[in-house]
Amino acid sequence: MSPHQLELLAPARTADIGMQAILHGADAVYIGGPSFGARSTADNSVQDIARLVQYAHRFHSRIFVTMNTILRDDELEPARQLAWQLYVAGVDALIIQDMGLLQMDMPPIQLHASTQTDIRTPEKAKFLQDAGLSQIVLARELTLPQISAIRDVIYTDRTVIEFFVHGALCVAYSGQCFISHAHTGRSANRGDCSQACRLPYEVKDTQGRIIAHEKHVLSMKDNNQSENLRALVDAGIRSFKIEGRYKDMAYVKNITAHYRKLFDEVLSERPELAPASHGHCTFSFTPDPNQNFNREFTDYFVQGRKEDIGAFDTPKNPGQPIGWVSKVTSEHIELTTDDPRTELHNGDGLCYYDLQKELVGLQINRAEATRTPGVWALYPKDAMDGFKDLRKGVQVNRNRDMQWVRTLDKKSAERRMGVWMQLSETPQGLKLTLTDEAGHSASAELALAWQAPKDPTQAQDKLSAALGKLGDTVFEPLNVQLDLPRPWFVPPSLLNALRRDAVQALEAQRTLSLQRLPRATPVQPPAPYPEDTLSYLANVFNQKARDFYASHGVKVIAPAYEAQEELGEVSLMITKHCVRFSMSLCPKQAKGVTGVQGTVKAEPLQLINGKEKLTLRFDCKPCEMHVVGKIKKSVLQAVSESPVQFYKTRPVVGLH
Questions:
Q1: pLDDT band at residue 648 under the 50/70/90 scheme
Q2: Once rounded to an integer, what is the mean pLDDT over residues 191-199?
Q3: Is pLDDT above 60 for 595?
Q4: Which of 389, 461, 520, 544 sits CB 3.0–4.6 Å from 103 for a disulfide?
């Protein structure tokens, strides 16, 4: 990918979803293979991925496969073999976290740095470029100036900078969360996160006072950078990533289409930029991110720290306000809509907040319009007496619109590439040449004796119209040019065959012209890693990964948290989100407030969920929060992973 191209990178849980992502405008798709992907239940066979590759390459879209878990020693060889299978299947790049893979006989396939590699600094970004990574996804927490600083130190003709623009937000710096492993033995770094961040917690201060009760204080709103795309382009982002390898078909269709439209606007304003794949999309619906599951939206830290980034009341989808309850009976409610034009449908999902600010779902079995405009009689699927605090005046939101769902269940997009068509005469008959918008050209010839048409005046128009019928191909005619010295009659069956042969020839030419993404060569001698000591936070879980860091000058290498050697209290999560700040308890916020100066300190807080207790500690200089705890005995007693032995201290050189 060249520095002037913009790539819209969409997720796919399955190959079929991946195809729809391509159809709805993705320049590239990332998908899990049969194993070693950081979404444990989003696996796909190599055969299915090969099918997706073939489909994507028609548009010169790319397929990236996630192999981004940390690997045990006994998994390295199976991972290497899988990498070769994916390479043979035509996959364009592998997304990796474990640097042990770089020490092995990998295929000549491009390697991308996973979000799990936790790229926050120019030094880390530059190191990964020097180590041979061709695309690096930056931490979601970075601001525009921080992104620009990374762009300024790397060679943008060698390495593409990628950034998440939409979807669920991991509250931790990716790769820096171990709560799931500590509490359940399920490792987020191995694709099996238990999502402790979405649980409700009681928050207590050092005196034991309750600051918040049953709040989801580690649950973030969803990422949405729709308003920041131009600023991100200016800061150096070239690949724009949508989160969601667990998401359904409707989500991927809608969100991909939403960003495709936004990027087409940007590209039309900036002729120096180009899309990273070919073709343009038309949609049978109006994309709208609010229609899919979301926890409301935030642009997180891109424009600096903000107070409203958390979804503290609920990790569920609160939907969009639609109206208010105007009557409650034993069988149904009456709903007065905010906009009289709003229509409700059987099967719609509604919800409201009870008096404890808990979200209560209200699925509609039957929706009937009353005689009063804007008032609907709604009969819920569940019994009315089960709905807590449902009363007159309660605001109701819609979080599932059945009409919208049905629209996206059907065919909802087309993607076509424009072609110029030229029909010319040859000594043997006719030749049809097709040239696509990207400059690829191919011809087909028809051996045919000249035959005069019955009506020479209409012959040209008939030939043009018949040639332009490109039907269910991926092409559409931009112009049909007839370079014929005399009018021709061509039997329709022969003309159709000529057009079909020319289309096949152009598809073959396009396939031939698609270059494999080149594998980057690591710089020699190996670039020194920015630090000479690595703690468990570096996620080193096998001997090859240890060898990799040692070859880059690291002296002390502790094993990953999953090796279960960190038995005491440690940081189980590091995050840019700050609970003190979100609750207006930050010492920096208190500065300048009369009577408060110096009285607010960043003392620890405690999070409690049932028997689980975690401590929040605040590192105010980098403005970060650490969630501190220790591994449970039950996890230690369970079958432990194969042990990893590394140096615990600097090896003593020269002593025998």
A1: very low
A2: 92
A3: no
A4: 544
Contacts of 47 by beta carbon, 8 Å cutoff, 6+ apart: 89
Nearest-CA neighbor of 195 among 203, 205, 184, 204?
Answer: 184
Q: Is the pLDDT of residue 418 over 90?
A: yes
User: Which residues have C-beta within 8 Å of that of residue 336, sequence separation ≥ 6?
Assistant: 323, 324, 325, 326, 374, 375
pLDDT score of 641 more than 90: no
DSSP 233-257: HHHT--EEEEP-TT--HHHHHHHHH
Q: How many CB atoms lie within 10 A of CB 438?
A: 14
Does the domain spanning 316-409 belong to CATH 3.30.70.1230?
no
Can you tell me the mean pLDDT for 31-59?
A: 91
Name the residue ranges covered by the structural domains of the chain.
5-169+223-283+285-291, 171-219+571-632, 316-409, 415-513
Element holding 113 (H helix, E strand): strand 110-113
Residue type, 138: L
Are residues 116 and 36 in contact, defined by beta-carbon separation less than 8 angstroms? no
pTM, two decimals, is 0.93
Sheet containing 201-204: which strands, arranged edge to edge? 210-215, 201-204, 605-609, 612-619, 624-629, 570-575
- As a whole number of Å, the end-to-end CA separation of the chain is 52
Please say whether the structural domain 5-169+223-283+285-291 has been given the CATH code 3.20.20.70.
yes
